[in-house]
Every structure is written in structure tokens, then in C-alpha cells.
Amino acid sequence: MNAVAAEKAKYQQDHAAEVLRRLDQIGAINLNVLVTKASEVLNIVGANFDDDDGIYRMCYRQMVHIGPRGDIDVVSMVSQLTSLGFEVKPSGIQTGGLQANE
Amino acid sequence: MDHARDQSVQSVQSVEAVSCDLLRDHVRSALQVARLMLDEVLDARFREEDPEQYLQLAIKACGELAMLLRVAKRALPSDEDASVMQGLAHDLAPLARLPHLYRLLLVRPSRAPMYAMAHFCLTELGVPDERFDRAARLALASSACAANERIPYRLLDAAWTRHIALDDSELQHPAIGLSPLGAGVDLLEATTEDAYALTHALPYATDFGRVPLPQSLDRNRLLLIADALAVKALDEDDLDLLAEVLMAPAILRMDWTPTLTFAWDVLERVWMEVGFVPCPGIPPPASNETRTQAVRRVLGTLYHTPLAAGVCCATLIACHAAPPLLECEGPGGMQLPPGKGKLWKVNWEKCSRETQESLNFLSLAFSLRRAVDDLDFARIREIVQSAAQAGLVEHPLFLQSLELLERATA
Questions:
Q1: Is B406 touching A (CB cutoff 8 A)?
Q2: Where do runs of H (alpha helix) occur along B303-409?
Q3: Which residue of B47, B56, B292 is the best one to mutate when testing the A interface, meaning the one whose CB has the most A CBs within 10 A?
Q4: pLDDT category, B244, cuts 50, 70, 90?
Q5: Contact A60/B295, CB-based, under 8 Å?
Q6: Structural contact between residues B326 and B351, judged by C-beta atoms closer than 8 angstroms
Q7: Main-chain dihedrals φ then ψ at residue A86, nearest 5 degrees
Q8: A41 to chain B nearest CA, in Å?
Q9: For the purposes of burial, counting CB atoms within 10 Å of the CB of B6, is it exposed (0-12), middle (13-18) or buried (19 or more)?
């Protein structure tokens, strides 16, 4: 066996030993835990996230489909909010702002 | 020193700044919108109606709310504010550690920065979860942790989340040079996405201005690019983009330019007059929409812009970079520049003559946008000439215009 092959074999042996050590550590905790965890995780249903494309857009336009862009219509925005029962008080942030209607 | 920048600084240096108390009130106003989102859109009782849509919005908004809270904490040191933020963080926690996210941390470790961002922010705010934290940290250390091909500013986004969990060294990322921070922005017909790439890269690479940008970057050039993007936002009445652009002077640790000062004045006036910062638009209603669906559509769209404005104000306070007050005594009488949008025009009419004259870049940039729309090369040439006469020719916008003319005539 030449030196390179010997080194490779040694690496594989060490690596296998490391994997076995990590597996042993997990087993030492309790194999039943793994079974329970698997069933817990398998029961999580209800959302199918598309990694980067759906769930984590940090800015407004990339995540909301608002249709064709027209003029900004603040009056219509305020009217939609008030018709849903929210209160919009102009000026004076401390007393105003956007809030639920008490 | 860049001549264009030199001119900009001269006209705003001696002016009084917007008070930090007012900026703090703005941050509180954003927290008020966060509370409304939690109570009226993200509460578990609304989950049954279209659960998948609920979860998608919940996870996205939860990340943004957590980010706002983390930055707001730097700006609002009082016990009363701390108690409000703690309440929000507690109510946000179940969404930040949804079972779906936990599952994804186990089976999709390369996406861990996205799924664990809100969790790490809340942990920093004193609302921990040990089990979720263990899974998240192991995912960040996984052999596949970097196996997610991303564009440069989104690499910085992931690095920013990693730095909250690990340390500041994560922020020194090789993608900085490839992002708009190093490469600039193609300004002539920049899209909103191009603009967001810069406005996101800036806070991510610096943790919202806490850490300086690497010395090798040209901060002066980046500020001038921010100027051009502010004009785009004003031209399109896009206060969402504008709020993000307005963090630039604070993060770059540079003085406010006349254009950015004016843009701040527009944002703040609308905020005060309307009561919140309006977004560019709301999706049309579906037929037979229920109230839950309507609230989700309206509030679930509209919340983002006040949040972005709140993050902006918190950043300005934390970086000691309050905007200068604009000189608004009496109408200056100068003709409106050829910008579209309507929000900025109200402010323009109220500006003094001196202020209107200081907004030479804004006027030229609006004119340039119209000329580029029409591909009117003769007009573009005239505008570049005027920019040269005004000492603005080194501005990236006009440099790129000059290059356009060179390409057109090659």
C-alpha cells in the first residue's frame, strides 16, 4: 500500500469513527426520542413554502401583487380601513395614527 | 472631495435637525401598526380561513415585526416603551417558532437564516426558546448551511441573521463587493428591485448602521446613488422604497443631502397628515370576500410601509442622524420640476426659494427621467450639460447618462 492510499484509509477510518461517535451520542440520549420527534415533525402539515420565492420577501412590492400601478390613492386606503372598523386619525402621532376602533 | 457632494453638504449643514422626540413618536406609531397586525391579522383565531395564505403572511410579517422590534429597542430606551415592545415580542413568539419553521430547520438547514431570523431577534429581546434555538444553531453549523444559491444582497441578508446568532465577523462577507454596495446601481431605468437591492444591502452589511462599512467602499458614491433612488421613489409616489432609502445618510455616516432632506420632509408630512405612511397600493378585493379576508388583504398589505418607516426612524435615532429641518417659510415660487407623483408637489410648493434652489439635483434628475422615458438624446445631452455647469457631473446618474450618450453615438 503506498503512502497516499494509506493516508486515505486512515482518513476513512477516522471519519467512520467520528460518525459512529456522533450516532452513539444521539443513541445515548434515547432512541425513543428520535421516534417521537419523527412523529411530531411528520404531523406538521398545512403550509407548502417555496423557500426563497414566497415567504421571505422583506419589502413591499416583491411580495404583494397589487395589480397595475396607478396613482397612489390615499383616500381610498383610508376609506377601506374605516369601513373595516379601524380608526385613522390624521396628525399628532401621540393621539392619532392607525388603530383598532374601541 | 467630490464636488457634487461638497455642494450638497454646504446647503444643509447649518440647519436645525428634526427632534428625536418626534422621531421616537414615529417609531411608536410603527409599533402601534405592529400591534394592530398581531391582533387583527395574525391572531390564531384567523388561521382557519385559508390557512396556507395565513401562514405565508404570518411568517413574512413576523420576520419584519421582529426586525422592527430589534431596531426600535435601540431607539426607545424608556421602561414604558420597553414594556410595549416586550408585550409585542411575547405575542410574536409563537409565530416565530411555528412548528412549520421548526420542521424546515431540521430538513432544510441551508434556509435556516430565513426561518430563524425572527427567533434570533426575539431571543435578543429576552424572549428565548431553547429547543428552537438548538435546532437553529445546528442548522447554521450544518455542512449544507451555505448550499443556497443567492444573489449578493440576499447573501448579506443571511449573513446579517447569522451575525445575530454568532458574532459581528459574519458581517464581513465577500458578497459586499458584488452587491450594489460595491457594484453600484444601474440608475437610468432602475427598477424597484434594483433599488431595494441597495436599500437592503446597506442595513444588512452594517447591522442598521451599528457597524461601519468596509473602508474600501466609496460611501460618497453610495450617498449620491441614494439621492437618485429617492428621486425615483418621489417620482413614483413610493413611500415604501423612500423610507428604506432614507436610512442611507445614517448608515453611511454622512450628512443629509438637500434631496434626501426634502424627501424626508415629504414622508413626514404625509405620515402626519394621513395618520400612517400609505403604501403604493392595495390589491383589489376577491368576490364574496369575508371580513377576515378583507382585513388580511388591506391591513396585511398596508402594514409594511409604516413598519419600514418605523425601522428608518429607529435607525436615524440610533445613529444620531436626525434629518435637518427644511426651510419652508413662504412659497419659493419656482416652477415645479417635471416629476410625476403628487405627494412631493405639496412640499415643493411650501418650500422657500432658497430651498427650491438647493434642489437642483432633484430638478435635473426629474428632467432626466422624462428624457430617458422618451429616449430624447438631445434633451439628455442638455441635462448633462446643465449638471456639468452645476458641478454635478460626477454624480453617478449623470456619469451614466454621459455613457449612454457615448453608446448611442458609437
A1: no
A2: 304-318, 343-350, 353-358, 360-373, 377-389, 396-408
A3: B56
A4: very high
A5: no
A6: yes
A7: -95, 155
A8: 6
A9: exposed
Angle between helices B192-206 and B219-235 (to 10 degrees): 140
Measured between beta carbons, which residues in chain B are less than 8 angstroms from residue A93? 22, 25-26, 28-29, 271-272
pLDDT in tens, B67-109: 999 999 999 999 999 999 999 999 999 999 999 899 999 999 9
pTM of the model: 0.90
Which cell is B409 given?
Answer: 453615438
| CA-based end-to-end distance of chain A | 83
Rounded Cα–Cα distance for residues B383 and B394 (Å): 13
DSSP annotation of B261 = H
Bridge partners for A55 per DSSP: none
CA–CA distance, B129 with B120 (Å, rounded to integer): 9
Which residues of B fall within a CB distance of 8 Å from A94?
A: 25, 28
Give buried/exposed letters for B45-84 (b at 16+ CB in 10 A, else e).
Answer: ebeeeeeeebbbbbbbbbbbbbbbbbbbbbbbeeeebeeb
* Residue B264 near residue B316 (C-beta atoms within 8 A): no
Q: Note whether B55 contacts A78, CB cutoff 8 Å.
A: no
Report residue A35 CA to chain centroid gap. Answer: 24
Residue type present at position B240:
D
B200 touches chain A (CB under 8 A): yes
A76 HSE (CA, 13 A, CB side): 12
Q: How far is B354 from chain A (nearest CA, A)?
A: 27
Burial letters for B243-272: b for 16+ Cβ neighbours within 10 Å, e otherwise? bbbbbbbbbbebbbbbbbbbbbbbbbbbbb
Distance, first Cα to last Cα, chain B: 32
Asked if this assembly's ipTM is beyond 0.85, the reply is no
Q: Is B142 on the interface with A (CB under 8 A)?
A: no
Residue of B nearest to A43 (CA): B99
- What DSSP letter does each residue of A33-53 carry, written as one string? HHHHHHHHHHT--S----HHH
Q: Do B275 and A98 touch (CB under 8 A)?
A: yes
Q: What is the pLDDT of residues B335-374, one digit of tens each?
A: 999 999 999 999 999 999 999 999 999 999 999 999 999 9
Q: How far apart are CA B175 and CA B226, in angstroms?
A: 20
DSSP for B125-192? TT---HHHHHHHHHHHTSTTTT-----HHHHHHHHHHHHHHS-GGGGS-GGGTTSHHHH----TT--H
